[in-house]
Structures are given as structure tokens and as C-alpha cells.
Design a protein that fits this description.
318 residues; alpha/beta; 5-stranded mixed sheet
Length: 318
């Protein structure tokens, strides 16, 4: 299995807030064939075998079983039918067990997280072509944004990110910047909440998070981590967790400075990236249809569409 990763993009200096919904470039498809066993010649057959397995076993009932949807689960588990089936069932079990994170969510209400830059999605990828999801927890005001809303926004971002074939193949990177986190904020970040976030990102969602990088943490994190660490029973989860403090040189061993903001010793300017990204992607008809099928509403954007497009958004997946 090759350890070489595809480069980030054809134009590494290109900065734009949009989704890459088209077919991945050939070098990424070549990497997928060698590293996650995705063979274009047998892909349709494997998808059908996966679909048959879902119906025959009946362990979970997905809301859709079309090829495009099932493919993301197969990619996330290197085209292992057993692995993809377990992931699919974990995903729906997590949704059933945590309805507060999924039900009755209005997308326009989540814009506040973009204004406050609590969660950002940089409009560029790192050197391997992976997206970066960046949390700046010091910006979070628990009285303004509840912990549930923070979780809800994270899940919406991940659902949208899972639409990108590049993300399905390569996965993503998560950075938690804990600078300025106070005792009042830490009070809401219980071990249970932390564990749920790690669970959804590692074993219950069809997109790989290859690494969690903690930066600028203080004594509150150290105290909380000592409480939380016993809950981490997976060696893979521990291997993905990297704690750097303010040692950005250690962070640079994982992410090239060319793909990091100057704040982290990188070369890029800061972008109001979540807000720009969120406003842009919500205009995509494919995104609106996908999120609506998951139960998310976006009356603001739907109202801007013509009648024919609104009907297209409501067409069920097969």
C-alpha cells in the first residue's frame, strides 16, 4: 500500500469558498485504487453487493440506498463490505441515540457560528488534498450558542463535506485551538460531550478524520484530558490525537506551513472562512436537497429558488 499522498490541488495558491462536487482528478483516483481498493471496473458490483447486504441483514434502515450515497461508506472503510456495513449501522444508531443533534434544525440559525468564527472551514486544502476543520473554542460564548448547537453545526459541516468525492477518498483533518478557553466554557465541555464528538468523527460517520490536532491548550485542557482519556479505548483514536500546545513546529510536521494561517506559524492570511463557505454552499441545489433529505430545513435559501428548482430539492433519493 502506497504512503505517497496526492498533492492538494492543481493550484496550491487558489483560495475560494466552494464545494468540489465533480469527479476527483486522476491522480486522486489512482491513489484511491492503490490505497482504499477502489477499482472503477468493479465499483458498481461492490456497491450492489453492499446494498444487498443491507437489505438481507436488516440491521439498520438507511433513508437512502442509491449508489452515490452508499459509495461514501465504502470509501470510508476501504471498500470492506463488513466495515462499511458496520459504519452505516453505527451512523444510524448514533442518530437514533442523539435526536437533539439532528432533529428540527434550521440551517439559517447556525450562521451565528460563522459570524463568531467558532468553527471555520478554510477555503483551501492541506498538502495531501485534505480539508481542514478548525475550531476556535475561545470564541465560543455558551450563553449565545448552546453546546447542542455547536454539535449540530459540526454535523451539518460534516454532512456537506461528505458530498465532496475528494473528502470521501482522502478524509479530513481537525484542529482544535483552545486559546482563551475559560473555566465557564470548560464547564459545558463534559467528557460525555467530548466522547460523542470523537465517536461521530471516528466510528459513526462516513468520512475519515485522519488526525486531531490540539493547539494552545492550557491547564484546563490538561485537567479535562486526564478525566477524558480513560474513555478512549481505541488505539486508533489515540494515534490520531496530537497535542502540540504552542509548539507549532510539531504541528508543521503534520501540516505544511504553506497551508496554515500565520497564527499557527503558517504562510496564509486569515479568512472569515466558515461564513463565506456556509453562505456559498447553501446556494448549491445538491446541498439543499441532501440536507433536506436528512431533515434539515433552509427556508431562507429555498424561498429564493424558482418553483421548478424547489420541486427538484424535494424529489426523494432512490
Amino acid at each position: 500500500m502506497s504512503t505517497d499522498m496526492p498533492s492538494g490541488s492543481d493550484n496550491d495558491n487558489e483560495v475560494k469558498s466552494q464545494l468540489d462536487l465533480g469527479d476527483p482528478p486522476q491522480h486522486v483516483l489512482d491513489w484511491a485504487k492503490e490505497n482504499i481498493r477502489e477499482n472503477p471496473e468493479t465499483r458498481d458490483q461492490v456497491i450492489q453487493e453492499f446494498r444487498d447486504m443491507i437489505f438481507e441483514r436488516g440491521d439498520c434502515t438507511p433513508h437512502r440506498t442509491d449508489d452515490e450515497y452508499l459509495l461514501r461508506f465504502l470509501r470510508c472503510r476501504n471498500f470492506s463490505l463488513e466495515g462499511a456495513h458496520k459504519l452505516l449501522c453505527n451512523y444510524y444508531e448514533f442518530k437514533d441515540n442523539n435526536p437533539d443533534f439532528f432533529e428540527g434544525i434550521s440551517l439559517e440559525n447556525l450562521e451565528i457560528l460563522g459570524h463568531d468564527e467558532i468553527i471555520t472551514v478554510p477555503p483551501y486544502r492541506e498538502q495531501t488534498g485534505r480539508r481542514i476543520l478548525l475550531y476556535r473554542m475561545g470564541n465560543w460564548d455558551p450563553e449565545k450558542v448552546t453546546i447542542n448547537e455547536l454539535f449540530q453545526a459540526s454535523l451539518v459541516i460534516m454532512e456537506v463535506g461528505a458530498l465532496e468525492p475528494m473528502n470521501q477518498i482522502l478524509g479530513g483533518i481537525c484542529i482544535w485551538d483552545l486559546e482563551g478557553v475559560s473555566l465557564g466554557q470548560a464547564w459545558y465541555l463534559t467528557p460525555s460531550i467530548a466522547y460523542k464528538m470523537m465517536e461521530i468523527m471516528t466510528s459513526a460517520f462516513p468520512m475519515k478524520i485522519h488526525a486531531f490536532h490540539i493547539v494552545n491548550q492550557n491547564w484546563l485542557f490538561d485537567m479535562g484530558y486526564n478525566i477524558f482519556k480513560p474513555f478512549i479505548t481505541s488505539d486508533k483514536m489515540l494515534e490520531r490525537l496530537h497535542i502540540h500546545g504552542r509548539n507549532y513546529e510539531e504541528l508543521h510536521k503534520h501540516i505544511d506551513p504553506k497551508y496554515l494561517p500565520k497564527k499557527y506559524g503558517g504562510e496564509l492570511e486569515e479568512y472569515n472562512s466558515f461564513y463565506d463557505w456556509y453562505v456559498t454552499v447553501r446556494k448549491e441545489v445538491k446541498v439543499l436537497r441532501e440536507l433536506k433529505s436528512l431533515g434539515y430545513s433552509d427556508e431562507v435559501e429555498e424561498a429564493k429558488l424558482d418553483e421548478e428548482t424547489r420541486k427538484a430539492i424535494n424529489v426523494p433519493f432512490h
